[in-house]
Amino acid sequence: MTIPLSLLLSLLLSFPVVMVDPHLHGVVLDHSTHRPLQGATVRVLGTRLGAITDAGGEFHVHDLRGDSVTLEVSMVGFTTQRLRVPTRGEADVVVDLLPQSMEQGVYVPTVTVIGHSSSTAAMPSQPTTVLSMEELDATRGSTFSDALENVTGVAVMRTGPSIAKPMIHGMSGTRLVLTQAGVAQEGQQWGEEHGPEIDPFLPARVTIVKGASGVRLGPNAMGGAISVDPEPLTTLTSGWRGEASSNLFSNALHGAVGGWLERTRLFDEDVSVRVHASARRAGDASTPDEVLGNTGFSAWSGAAQLTAGDQDLGLSVYGSHFATTLGIYAGSHLGNAADLQRAIERGRPSTTYDFTYAIGNPRQEIGHTLLSLQGHATLAPQTRLKVSYGWQQNDRSEFDKHNARIIGRGTDPVERARDSIARLQRSLATPAMNLLLTTYTAAAEVEHQLGSSIQGSAGVSGLRQVNDRSGRVFLVPDFLALGAGAWLYENYVAEDWSVNAGLRYDRRWLEALQQQKIYEGVSGSVGAMVDVTSDLRVQGNLGLAWRPPAVNELYSNDVHHGVARFEIGDSLLQAERSTGADLTVRWAAPSVEIEATAYGTWFSNYIFSVPDPDHPTITIRGVFPTFRFRQTQAMISGVDLSATVSVTSEVSIYGKGALVRGWDQVRAEPLFMMPADRLRLGTHVHLDDVLGMHESYVDVSVVGVRHQDQIVPGQDYVDPPPGYTLVDVAAGGIILVQSTQIRWGVTVRNLLNTSYRDYLSRYRYFADDPGRDIMIRFTVPFGDPP
Amino acid sequence: MKSSKSLKSCLAAGVVSVALLSTSCSESSHDHDHGEHDVVTTITMVLVAEGSTDTLRYSWDDPDGAGGQPPSIDTIMLAANTVYSAEIRILNDTEVPAEDLTSTIVNEGDQHQFFFRTSIADLALVAADQDVNGLPIGQRLRLTTGAAATGTIGMDLSHYDSPAAKDGQTPSDETDISIDFPAVVN
User: Fold this and answer.
1) Which of A97, A515, A565, B83 keeps 20 to 30 A from A46, CA to CA?
2) Superfamily covering domain A22-114
3) Alpha-carbon distance A459 to A595, whole Å?
4) How far apart are the CA of B114 and the nearest CA of chain A, in angstroms?
5) By C-alpha distance, which of A565, A556, A614 is closest to A717?
6) Cα A529 from Cα A289, distance rounded (Å)
């Protein structure tokens, strides 16, 4: 592994450079206060391209042509600015707008280019949402996935307050790819109770791509991709700064602290470093009526990043460790199917739990360590090499509750009793299942430009993955997997339209239980984007994607206690393949912004588990329903809709809705576990200066979730829960303490303390979802101004 | 190429050592111990008819655990209009010699209870033992048969997190054992 790396390194350090990226990202600031400006209009002169800045003052313009463009940035009350910015390069633009009240001519516009490695998961025509660090700051919850829940089309599957899995367009787990620092996160994604192992406090920006992303990310990216990229670390300006944050949550008396510190241009060289650390602890969560026993969790995380070089030649090293211990709700761990039936009929836990921070069995202990090396070098004018290497290890231990049948050995009764206690303690400390998944990934790509209108990338990637299991629960075997892939995509940009196309081939080798399997597949995409008028954009995509069957789908053979099912894999499963199409219409007039996406994905060999009522599994613990992994033809389709209307410059009204339908075409019945229809309506009041606070806002919204009626009657133990309506309230802003801008926010989730059960919550069989939760957030920046 | 040479070589060394470190990390799980878990494979019902010295043994046996081969299950043969005293033995025969786990259940009697069920109308199964709180355990029991019939006899062993949770009537949500025997009364 080290020899090719040092070779790459010498390549990296010896070529001159230029970059290729048709996407411009920037932020518009008030020159006098350096605060972000929302609602500023950004136009690209000579084209119909443009954007309006969001709450963080940020804007994105895609499909830029030429080496540089002239931007015109305007906003009521500010002097209009025109500035020429380079487009070649993954650069951010900062525009300072001068208030009109200030004397004209004094101000010299400053354009700061921040070295920024933008996420490359999306094709330009795909529906994409970028969450900036500030947006993440304002939506941070107890888990990483909580911040994604506000994105239209994204649902979250929860196993209590500590485990949340994102679902994009009805697809989750092994049908999504989540990358951290450019490396696809390889955990035990197959489990419904296995969330992504990412710290919500990471100083990062998150890109959510909806739709097949196989060309860029390879197999599994069928539903979309989530990229968590460390906040760009500049090597251009010297300084040090940091942020300290704290989040407090009332529901589980949950407290979290985190912070980061960076030093740029270390020793006056092109080297910058950043370190990050956070810790959190939560006790048992509560529904409006009772405590959910054993749902507490604790976590800590640390990360370090080193960036060296400049835009022509650079290297970034990123390492992180995330560790968590989390309790599994005591009432959800049942002996057999009859116990589950009784628990459901009772409708509430059999015992009353007292609030505690202690975490007992059943519990999970997870550690995830990531190391990512990323380099770029310009090989020739308009040709750029990017290389990456990733190493990660996911260490997951699951501890069962049922470990108590222990007898002492020996003839003397005292000796026997002592031995019995010792064995019991050892037993409780021994995981029922330990999985150690080690993954190496490497990729190299050449970004290139052909003429003035075609840009693209060609690359290769490889993967090696080893899983080592131990313990008596048999859900996944030991395995060795190898993967290799190669891709090419191009993007053609014309005056007010663009088209892109990409193709990728991957091959996966899997060795498990003395069986060797090979899966191969082609990922492809064709997309186009047309600016019909300066306000109206239409974009559409066709995508081919595939995934090899997951190891649990092939080889699982044990009781899954949380769901009281005996799951049996099928080692003959074929690769799952999909063809998807989406169409997005975006209308952005000055006071109205509407975005609508319609999509459909057709699967062949869709893998799912079905009950096998004719062959229940008879065990000494009783009879378990048998579930077998099967394949079918399926279709998932839906609509995402979001709209914002600015009533005045301070008040806007917004709505976000998502509709997903899954259909098994062979059995002519709905697919299991599709998110219920969801609509959020809210109003956002933005006040520049109130009570000595800046950028303050109040947001009140109502989310309605409809009863999931797209089900097969009798397939599940219990029918889906009824629909529900929750009220959420948020407020926040910036307080200036001396010259420090302290960002604060208060969010109240489920303000009315409504009792409800979400269809995607795995505890819905046994208990209500958590009740009112008041979250208080503070972020204190320090050091040199950015 | 603004970086100095020494810095470059430092970086290169750093990167190489980090990569080396990652490849030298263990890929094997720390713990290959299968735990101290005692497996129940076999339930034997031992019956003695009142006034008789003959011992009847019927077993429910699943040596390979859940899944795999189906369990082998004896048919319980009982005489009509007879009273039996019976005992349930809980064994782990994956060990040699087979481990008798019955005493663990009895020692933790205040956290366990057997519940019985039968499809035979004219058959009564009543616990004949008590825990320290005077509640039935059911490890020892009394069977009273009536007229000839065919059906099943089943038993569920409930495990309670605490003695306070056991009331002698309500099964828990943690069933340790739940099996059914075919039964013939003639």
Assistant:
1) A97
2) Carboxypeptidase-like, regulatory domain (2.60.40.1120)
3) 33
4) 13
5) A565
6) 51
Query: What are all long-range contacts of A479-485, with beta carbons under 8 Å and residues at least 24 apart?
Result: A479/A510, A479/A511, A479/A512, A479/A551, A480/A510, A480/A511, A480/A512, A481/A508, A481/A509, A481/A510, A481/A511, A482/A508, A482/A509, A483/A218, A483/A219, A483/A507, A483/A508, A483/A509, A484/A460, A485/A218, A485/A219, A485/A460, A485/A461
Interface pTM, i.e. ipTM: 0.78
C-alpha span between A657 and A538 (Å, rounded): 19
Judge whether A697 and A733 are in contact, CB under 8 Å. yes
Q: Which two tokens stand for residue A755?
A: 């009792």
User: How far is it between the farthest Cα atoms of chain A?
Assistant: 97
DSSP assignment string, A332-372: G--SSHHHHHHHHHH-S-SSPPPP-S---SSEEEEEEEEEE
Write the pLDDT tens digit of every residue in A682-693. Answer: 999 988 777 778
Tell me the C-alpha distance between B172 and B166, whole Å.
Answer: 8
Indicate which of B32, B61, B178 best probes the interface with A, i.e. most A CBs within 10 Å of its own CB: B178
Measured between CB atoms, which of A267, A436, A568 is closest to B27? Answer: A436
Domain of B55, CATH number, reads 2.70.50
Interface of A with B in 269-328 (CB under 8 A): 269-271, 306, 308-310, 313, 315, 317, 319
List residues bridging with B152 in a β-sheet. B182
Q: How many domains does chain B have?
A: 1
* Strands of A250-362, DSSP E: 254-264, 271-282, 297-309, 313-327
Nearest neighbour of A2 by CB, restricted to B16, B62, B101: B16
Beta bridge partners of B180: B154
Written as one letter, the residue type at A736 is L
pLDDT band at A101 (very low <50, low <70, confident <90, very high): very low
A434 close contact with B: CB closer than 8 A: yes
Predicted structure pTM score: 0.82
Q: pLDDT tens, A535-577?
A: 888 999 999 999 999 998 999 888 776 667 788 999 999 999 9
Q: What's the token pair of residue A298?
A: 């604790």
How many CA atoms does the CB half-sphere of A539 hold within 13 Å? 23
Rounded distance between C-alpha atoms, residue A637 and residue A634, angstroms: 10
Domain coordinates of chain A in residue numbers? 22-114, 128-400+431-783
For every residue of A483-510, DSSP letters joined together read: EEEEEEEEEEE-SSEEEEEEEEEEEEEE
Cβ–Cβ gap B103/A407 under 8 Å: yes
Residues A215/A94, Cβ–Cβ less than 8 Å: no
Domain A128-400+431-783 part of CATH 2.40.170.20:
yes
Question: Across the interface, which of B7, B12, B103 has its CB nearest the CB of A6?
Answer: B12
Q: Which residues contact A234 (CB under 8 A, 6 or more apart)?
A: A114, A115, A264, A272
Query: At B66, is the secondary structure helix, strand, or coil?
Result: coil
Residue indicated by tokens 């150690």: A436
Residue B91 located in a structural domain: yes
Domain region containing B88: 42-185
Q: Chain B contacts of A440, Cβ < 8 Å?
A: 22-23
Q: Is A366 on the interface with B (CB under 8 A)?
A: no
Give the 3-state secondary structure of residue B166.
coil
What does the alpha-carbon distance between residue A221 and residue A213 come to, in Å, rounded to a whole number?
5
- From chain A residues 465-494, the ones with a CB under 8 A of any chain B CB are 466, 468-472
Q: Other CB atoms closer than 10 Å to residue B1's CB: what's the count?
A: 14
If you measure CA to CA, which chain A residue comes closest to B155?
Answer: A622
| Residues of chain B with C-beta less than 8 angstroms from the C-beta of A620 | 40-41, 43, 60, 62, 66, 71, 177-179
Residues counted in chain A: 786
Q: Does B18 reside within a domain?
A: no
Q: Which of B181, B129, B132, B130 is nearest to B155 (CA)?
A: B181
Least confident of A25-29, A100-104, A772-776: A100-104
